[in-house]
Amino acid sequence: MTRSNDTIRVLIPLKLRKKNGRPKIMPPADCCPSEDQTQDPHILRAIGRAWGWRRRMEAGEFSTIQELAEAVGLAERHVSRQLRLAYLAPEVLKRLTCGREASAVSLYDLCFLAVDTWQEQAERAFRCPE
After folding, report:
1. pTM of the predicted model as reported, rounded to 2 decimal places
2. Interhelix angle for 90-97 vs 41-58, to 10°?
3. How far, in Å, CA of 65 to CA of 86, rounded?
4. What is the pLDDT of residues 89-125, one digit of tens each?
């Protein structure tokens, strides 16, 4: 039997979150994603959907977000939040889509980055030195 002073404890600062109804292990906030990690397909799909909605609104197909939400069958609040992804900084979009870099924030948090400056968006989205 081992004595209490022989026991080694290893603490790993991870968080369990539910993502799409399934538990997912989230790394610590100060952790940079590894280079072999691929982008979350939900983020790629959401960016593509947001750009499609933006083009449809700019083409005059819909005059309000409410009309767009009714047409696509989603809640107005959800459409409004997701539409912000079409207004992310070009560098962030390039790194997410072409570079396939994994974001350090969730899709939900990524939606709120559009209000920041372009440099702040990149820093908050990836939390890694360039």
Report:
1. 0.64
2. 130
3. 14
4. 888 888 887 776 677 778 888 888 888 888 888 888 8
